[in-house]
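User: My instructor asked us to take a sequence, write out its structure as tokens, and then describe one feature of it. I'm not sure where to start. Here is the sequence I was given:
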Amino acid sequence: MEFVRELARLAATGRFGAFHAGVHLSEVVAAYGEPEWSGRVDREERWPHWFGYGGLQPVFCRCRRLDALYVPARHEELTLPGPGRGESRSASLPVTGTQLTAALEEAGATFRTRWSEDAPDELPDQWTLYAEPAPHTVVTFTFWNRDPEEGTPKEDWPLYQAGLSGSDHTECPEPDRSLPDDGYGA
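Assistant: Let's start with the prediction itself. The structure tokens for your sequence are:
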């Protein structure tokens, strides 16, 4: 279960491989190669942009700093970038709430839990673990106890999605117009 340990490291350190809040897109490209796809988060705005690295969905702001990372975990398998540039690997799923909380405790990660009954803005039948491993960084793990196909309750709640968000700046600085276009819509 190496993937569950990677998720626990994310909660403890705020890092998932080369991804961490505020990392520059060029550093991710250096580690993993060019993204498989990209596009605007909002059609009306030039930035932020989604990028695709296997099943990972990072979001970068206008100054090319990571603003968020989504790790969809609701399928049977997840493709991850790495370990080297242009390489990929697979993670077996599901990860259950029991497995992840044990791995978080083993990693020494501090976390809190919120159930859907405590948060009316969330879907029913879900709960979320929150960790704050670094300043301006929040890691979430959302569990949903329904089988997406059958709608039946699960015995041990499967992970639906992990997320990383954070930024050390509230507004992107203006781009340096003297630099060449990086090919991502500068």
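For the description part of your assignment, you could build on this observation: The chain has a mean pLDDT of 87. Try explaining in your own words what that tells you about the chain.
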